Amino acid sequence: MIACPSLASTGLPPAPGAREVAGSAHASLAAAIGSCCMLLWVAASAAGAAPRLTDQPMPRTVQVDRLRVFKQAHTLEAWSDGRLIKIYRVAIGRGGPGHKQHEGDGRTPEGTYAVEAKRASHLFHRFLSLSYPSVKDRASFARARRAGRLAPGARIGGAIGIHGEKRGWSFLPHKWIDWTQGCIALDNDEIEELWRAVVVDAVVEILP
Prior knowledge:
Layout: H1 7-10, H2 18-49, E1 64-70, E2 75-80, E3 83-89, E4 111-121, E5 125-130, H3 135-146, E6 161-163, E7 184-185, H4 188-197, E8 198-207
Parallel strand pairs: 1-8, 6-7
Antiparallel strand pairs: 1-2, 2-3, 4-5, 4-8, 5-6
């Protein structure tokens, strides 16, 4: 009979046991999860920082006369006399894409509006009231009602604006999700800056 050589005599490493294989698999999984978490953190950080045109405070002499909101990109542009001054990242309505159809749908309206008023807000720090619903919005709502596309008792809604963080939420990264009832939300320091600079009757374009 020919004796099989031992692993020690061949110089080959011993085959891993079940415990070593399991430990190696767990280590690989942990490494993969760690890599994914790092990529998500980098992406989230980039998403929060990239839209800013500048991190410098807006000059106090600037008067913002036009705002442009891009819902899909979650950005708000502040313009003054035809010049782009600053870009902010925003949270919008929780109702998803599309134009606001009725009160309670959670969507942010789309169209051209104006800043009607600037006021302090107990719940949202500062509030820029917008001229929603517009004449076009009212006509669209009436057509939908006549066509039976709205539930009985549905209302067009209102009180849409640009505001700060919800009171008590300052410790949360509120821009990671869309959470408003249809408004556009900034950080408190950002709405403070914008509230100071924007003029009443400034044009506000809200785009898909």
